[in-house]
Amino acid sequence: MKLLHQSGLMDMTPKGIVIIGSGSQGRMLQNLFKQYKLGYQFLGFLDDQHQKYEHNGQFFEAPIDYYQELLEDDVHFFLAIGNVEDRMKIASHLKIPTEKYAIIVHPKAYVDPTVELSHGVYVSAHASIMHDVTIGEHTSIQSGAVVEYESRLNSFVNISPRATLCGNVQIADQVFIGAGATIIQGLTVAEKSIVGAGAAVIRDVPENHLALGVPAKNNMRLRSPNLYVTSRMDLGAQLEK
Ligand SMILES: CC(C)(COP(=O)(O)OP(=O)(O)OC[C@H]1O[C@@H](n2cnc3c(N)ncnc32)[C@H](O)[C@@H]1OP(=O)(O)O)[C@@H](O)C(=O)NCCC(=O)NCCS
Predict the structure, then answer these.
(1) Ligand 1: which of 177, 194, 235, 239 to mutate, judged by most atoms within 8 Å of the beta carbon?
(2) Looking at the chain, which residues constitute the CATH 3.40.50.20 domain(s)?
(3) Is the pLDDT of residue 133 over 90?
């Protein structure tokens, strides 16, 4: 995992940025760049709902594979795709060098200067990330979430609004933490697991498990966790017998 310090971003010359995904997350980022700039100039969206390159005078829209035309330019990219499985598939299909993915931190977030953020990370408004935290590629920290000291979050993780990770928590790849959930200090949530909204996690969560409730129970093993979260399939069908 390649990690960067946040301050490495503070280049004065605005760079072009292209958002991959023109859904709600992509449009939210477009508005963010309009309002705050953040050292970037928004150039356009790549999304396969667009058949061909078109420019409306302010920004372009084009199919995803148009990225190849932009690789030689001094352009950064950002994956604004909520579904983690799709985000991973597109990231591996695109072959965009890691360093060409932007790190986006909302100006109303607090990120301690010791925090290390990887490429493709998004930190939303009112999130707080405290000292010596590390965050892996394409991980998203949503509004008002708190990530306390020395926690380590891997890649393609989603931390939903107002979730709290107490100190020294370890979050593995592709974990989804629901809104308002709390993980107490020193715990691990293993790969591809889901913590439901509002859960209080007081024990480690094993790989591919669903943890729900207060205190959270971890005894539900998922067959296809990302599919489960994103397509809201029937819980019974998704749990291993
Ligand atoms: C866990 C979760 C994924 C389950 O979704 P679902 O499959 O649609 O679940 P259902 O609403 O069908 O509920 C299935 C059962 O689980 C229970 N349940 C669902 N979510 C729960 C939660 N967060 N805590 C406790 N129990 C929960 C329901 O009460 C129901 O129990 P029952 O069968 O005894 O009635 C979802 O409830 C959740 O917490 N999602 C996180 C949302 C979020 O944080 N989004 C942030 C986006 S930025």
Answers:
(1) 235
(2) 10-100
(3) yes
In three state form, how does the secondary structure of the chain look? CCCEEHHHHCCCCCEEEEEECCCHHHHHHHHHHHHHCCCEEEEEEECCCCCCCEECCCCEEECHHHHHHHCCCCEEEEECCCCHHHHHHHHHHHCCCHHHECCEECCCCEECCCCEECCCCEECCCCEECCCCEECCCCEECCCCEECCCCEECCCCEECCCCEECCCCEECCCCEECCCCEECCCCEECCCCEECCCCEECCCECCCEEEECCCCEEEEEECCHHHHHHHCCCHHHHECC
Please tell me if the CB atom of residue 212 comes closer than 6 angstroms to any atom of ligand 1: yes
pLDDT (tens digit, 9 = 90+) per residue, 37-76? 899 999 999 999 999 999 999 999 999 999 999 998 889 9
**Quick check: CB of 167 below 6 Å from ligand 1?**
no
Residue intervals in the chain for CATH 2.160.10.10: 104-238
What digits encode the pLDDT tens for the residues 187-198?
Answer: 999 999 999 999
Architecture of domain 10-100: 3-Layer(aba) Sandwich (3.40)
Ligand 1, pocket-test mutation among 158, 183, 209, 212, most atoms within 8 A of CB:
212
For residue 238, pLDDT beyond 60: no
Q: Is 144 in the pocket of ligand 1 (CB under 6 A)?
A: no
Homologous superfamily of 104-238: Hexapeptide repeat proteins (2.160.10.10)
What is the predicted pLDDT for the residue at 21? 96
Å from CA of 196 to ligand 1 middle: 6
